[in-house]
Amino acid sequence: MNHELRKLFHELVGLTPRERERVLRTRDIAAGLRAEVESLLSYESESCDDLTGMVANAAGEWLRNASGADPAHCGPYRLLRPIGSGGMGVVYLAERADGEIHHTVAVKLLRHSHRKEWHDRFLRERQLLASLQHPSIVHVVDAGHTEDGRPYLVMEHVDGVPIDLYAAEIGVEQRLRLFLQVCEGVSHAHRRLIIHRDLKPSNILVTPSGAPKLLDFGIARLVDDTSEATQTIERLLTPNYASPEQFAGEAQTTATDVYSLGAVLYKLLTGMAPPKNLQSGETKEVVAPSKVNSEIPKDVDYVLRKALRTEPEERYSSVDELAGDIRAVLEWRPVQARAGDIWYRARRFTRRYWVPVAATVVVVTSLSAGVLLANRERAVAERRFQDVRQLAAKLLDVDVEVAQLPGGSKARQMIVDTALEYLRRVSVDARMDPELRMEVATAYLRVARVQGVGIAPNLGQTGKSEQSELRAQELIEAVLAERPGHRLAVLRAAQIAHDRMILAGDGGRNKEALEFARKSAGLLKRYLEAGGLPERMEAQQALITGINVANRYRLAGQAEDALQLCRSTIELAKATKWPSQAGATLMIVALIERERGNLDEALRAVRESVRILEPPKGELRSGQRLTLALALVREGQILGEVDAISLGRAQEAEASLRRAFEIAEEFARRDAKDFHSRHRAFYAETRLASLVGRSQPKQALALYDDALKHLEGTQENAGWHRDQATTLAGSVYPLLKLGQAAEARQRLDAVFAHLGALKEYPARIIELGSEAIEGMRAQAEYEAHTGHARRGSDVYQELMERVLASNPKPESSLPEAMEMSNLYRSAAAIHRLAGQADRASAVEVMRMALWKAWSAKLPKNAFVQRQVEAARLRQ
Fold it and tell me: Is residue 188 domain-shared with residue 78, that is, in the same domain?
């Protein structure tokens, strides 16, 4: 192999980068050999005039060292064969050889060298990589030193191909989606203040399943690390993908990785790396990707132009912004780079010709001001009023119909974008009269709901939805400041507070959500007391608000407030002839009765809800049928949810959950981008998976995997992270039962990556009901299943300490009592498996004491008596 590598290296070293690329592209060179020779050619000196000499010297040293014998083992790992190499080390395929477990890994070993900076950089790479936990970043398995003192790093083995080779075989849309996964990994590193500094196709491998993995953090560093000089003797950069500031030896930030990602994306889309000036590192004028391939949207040209700007401050401010524009391309939304491109060019022009530009602005302003002021006052009010009426009456009314059509999400996005542009033009006049403000506020409210309020079919864009709600709130508050008795404005204010409650709750901001609930309830009461019965459509808006506020009260443990609001909502629904809203309210009543342990009453209420919500035969609209699906889920939970307050009637529960899933799945298939129906299908499917998991692990795993597919392509907000974490954690149990421990480990790593994004773990306290509990319980089960019961026991001990630090109230809340009981039961089982009988007995005593206290409080409650008996059997 060395002979072939030497021959190819000496053939390419004297060529220009373009000539090298042409030789490599036209010759049938193995991917591994190409990666090694490109790594050798990636060296350069401080002075680009001596590039060839520097490369030759570094490569010569590499080849001399490579001829020396590396050890046959690194700790417990046997080195099988080299699979890659870089400036500092060689990567070997290896396997664990100590007889404990069979495990194939990749081992990176530092070369023989007297260079202290290589040794230090290698140790730093190990530490940085160990701090990263993300599905798109290769994860650390182990580390150590050889007998001769060289450090090594053990990583997961990625059986993949460089991303540019993989991308050549897939379509443009698939390339962009693949690139988004890479961005997620880089963003994860940036959030931990780590910049990669050597992003290039050969450092991003794609597995056979299509998952990218970021490799080689050999020259990565912490953003705030000042230990490395601005200009170093060796800069291990790759010219075609390195930023201009890397060439210049200047300070490097996350903008450095943004530039390299732009260069990688250019290569994925065009098959060519962006041409560079090797003296300055600046990207030469590149051919627009849309001209290379007509299938590439023109917006991508603007995205790449922004990412590859010479000035770091003119690029995207973060990888997330770059990814956001790529998503906008995929979803046919406007990209920020397009508007930014105009301002960028304007700034460049102004810098060059600032004197004549300034003079021109003064003259034009003087001439225009008088004419504008004279005409503006006369025309603006009538024109803007008519504009907004057209918008509210036509554009958003069209959306109501489009929402019912299969595959309507793309059209809905266009409607939202057009509506927002229209509203921006309409609302620039700060002196709008109250009626016009009402119209604009209502339009912003409707746009926000299409964007991402989870009460109807929406696009899942919660962040943008909150921005629209804030604009609506500002306008409504201005109306109420002028006309406090404006009844419709009071209703709109209640709806806005309601929507913000939904968004806060979905984001896990429960305290904030309760505050919005109280505000909405107060405004709703004020609206209803301001006159007689509302007209029918306003009544429906008030009913939806009341139902969801009552549910938020329930979630906050304020059952009496919730029931009082439910009663008034049912009365209003009957008076205004909205039976479906009465049916939805009964769901809340059923859940409250369930949480009080009154399961028979809960079942009666939820079955009445299902009966009322059953739509007429042939009904195709999504609204009532998706509400029916939710009622069926609630029925299934009351009948037989696992480890929860239920009647224990699993077969009946399964039937209800399957029907709920079928209804939601039908709408999800019609429109893959409708977040509401996809999430309703996801919700039913995960609960069904949990129900069948104990007896049918294979079916449960298939359900969990399908549920995860329903989350693909949705907005990566807090709710998305929560759903991912709980579903991945749930899937660990059937994987362990099926003997797939390695896959279970990967999913656990992903769970904790999502918990990290939510800032739920690590954490000093963990509250009951949080996703962190699900993640830690799954981790403990994994440890116990893989022969490390003591580790599992320690995980439960840590979990119990952090839960108790949150001051839970299981003695006054039956749902909290059930969750605490589950923790006690599972912890006791693993403590006993670990041979820690004292620990097991202690938690079993606490479990029994908890249910005895509830038995005294609810002496004739059948559910509580079942828990007492179950606790007694465990002792």
Answer: no
**pLDDT at residue 457 is higher than 90:** no
The residues, ordered by sequence, that sit 6+ positions from 507 with a Cβ below 8 Å of its Cβ are 462, 717, 718, 719
pTM score, whole prediction: 0.55
400 token code pair: 């109501």
| Closest to 113 (Cα-Cα) out of 66, 55, 72, 181 | 66
Residues 179 and 318 in one domain: yes
Q: Report whether pLDDT(51) > 50.
A: no
**Which of 866, 864, 867 is closest to 598 using CA atoms?**
864
**Residue 815 and residue 769: Cα distance in Å, rounded?**
9
**Within a 10 A sphere around the Cβ of 371, how many other Cβ atoms?**
9
Q: Could you tell me if 36 and 143 lie in one domain?
A: no
Residue 350 has pLDDT above 60, yes or no: no
In the DSSP assignment, the letter for residue 34 is H
Indicate whether 473 belongs to any domain: no
- Of the three residues 341, 356, 389, the one that is the final residue of a domain is 341
The predicted model gives 200-226 an average pLDDT of 78
Q: Supply angle C-alpha 267, 270, 273, rounded to 5.
A: 35
Which two structure tokens, joined as six digits, stand for 62?
């590499």
- For residues 225 and 468, give the distance between their C-alpha atoms in angstroms, rounded to a whole number: 39
Q: Is the peptide bond before 762 cis (omega within 30 degrees of 0)?
A: yes
Tokens of 428: 């620039």
Beta strand 194-195 pairing with 151-156 = unpaired
Reference 676, options 465, 420, 417, 392; nearest CA is 465
Q: Which residues pair with 73 in a beta bridge?
A: 78
List the domain range (segments joined by +) for residue 30.
2-66
Q: What sign does the dihedral 481-483-487-492 (CA atoms) show? A: negative
- Say yes or no: 191 and 314 in one domain: yes
Report yes or no: 638 and 647 within 8 Å, Cβ to Cβ.
Answer: yes
**What are the backbone dihedrals phi and psi of residue 621, each rounded to the nearest 5 degrees, phi first?**
-70, 150
26/644 Cα distance (integer angstroms) = 63
Task: Please say which residue of 301, 318, 341 terminates a domain.
Answer: 341
Per-residue pLDDT tens over the stretch 599-642: 999 999 999 999 999 988 766 667 788 899 999 999 999 999 99
pLDDT of 376 over the 60 cut: no
273 and 179 within one domain = yes
Check: CB of residue 569 under 8 Å from CB of residue 546.
yes
Query: Does residue 372 register a pLDDT over 80?
Result: no
